[in-house]
Amino acid sequence: MYKLGTDYGGWIIPNNILLNQNSIIYGGGVGEDISFDLLLQDKYDCTIILIDPTKRALTHYQEIQDYYSHKYRDGCNNSNNNLENMKTESSHSFSGDIQKDYLPIINSLNPNFAKFKYYNMGLWNCQTELKFYHQTNPKYVSQSFINNMFGSEYNIVKTTTIKDIMAENEHNRIDLLKLDIEGAEIEVLNNMLDDRIFPKYLCVEFDLYLKQKDTQNKTQNVVDRLLSNNYKCLVNDNLNITFEYTL
User: Fold this and answer.
1) What is the pLDDT confidence band of residue 87, given thresholds at 50, 70 and 90?
2) Cα–Cα distance, 142 to 148 (Å, whole number)
3) Taking the model in full, what pTM does it have?
4) Domain CATH for 174
5) Distance of CA 98 to the CA centre of its chain
């Protein structure tokens, strides 16, 4: 097992993870750190579906595309090897709250953005429109569909489901599903299991419990349900849990 990505945005996965150029990765929750997704794409040449309705997340994704476009168009590989140059470039290229280890980790990659697709929508258990609550501290990018998770201010966003995205893209499987969606993971996982969708690997941050908003034991219930549906817990890193489907 090893951690792939930054300290903030990385996930622990098996050394012998079964991924290749035909693999399909879904990432719910983008924020301002897609080091995990970029590293997976660069290493395995897999398809990456990113899902996040947050305005700053979409901005960051666009800035990441611009970063690599300029990096390889201008032939600046050599200058970027200097850490000080990377720090300077980071401050000029990215408008968000970028982690210090982000650029050193993603700098040498050459991701294929033809194999990325971005959904500017939220993951939920149905197609609808929901209140998307903001953080009280504007520095933080994350938002939530869960009332009382953060502040009281919100905007309205459209939601979709894993099943609907799979149907639109004609995907008959998901090889890895990552969920960091600020409490919505409970609804999404239950809906996924209801639809009999079983990704080979799951990387889930259980925010409802971490943020002490789980008053009805929903987190334990959905974990029990995953385990009863042939998922094995590979690692639990402070409720950032990696599962493998073993059937």
Assistant:
1) very low
2) 14
3) 0.89
4) 3.40.50.150
5) 16
